[in-house]
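Now for today's protein:

——
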Amino acid sequence: MHNKALFLDRDGIINIDKGYVGKIADFEFVEGIFRLIERFTKAGYLPIIVTNQSGIGRGYYSEETFKRLCEWMNTRFQAHDIAPVPVYFCPHHPTDGKGEYLTDCECRKPKPGLLLKAAQDYNIDLSRSVMIGDSIRDLEAARAAGVPIRLWVTEKKQNAIAASCTHTFSAITEIEPAVVISQ
């Protein structure tokens, strides 16, 4: 059976983007994210986080610290009756990474590697999936992976990104899964 996924960027979608959030103390959930994930889950979508984490590659925090943060984040999801959400991350950066992290990899969005790996691991039908992101990179990665519904959460609401996204919203709380999915 093919699953359908709700791909979510992390910084700016799951948590408020404060720049290189690697510590639990700096992590603040975006208003409405628990309800949004719950509603998509009830509609049959598997939530999966796909996130660039160049803070690891730049040496701001370690992969171990990031994984502990993800474990903590999942305890908060569970406290809201949401099953643990898989997290796929890219620690690399093509110009500012240090050591092994200095690479132009296939997993760094806007390339689709994270979504393709998650689709393989979870038997996801990308053509029935949704991506929610706050940057053009997120939407371009989803488009390259074949995800047809791409939601951009931004205060800018520009029309110039029509090829990358299918809907724009000013906040997570504006997204109505039933409306988005039916289009």
Summary: The CA atoms of residues 11 and 119 lie 21 Å apart.
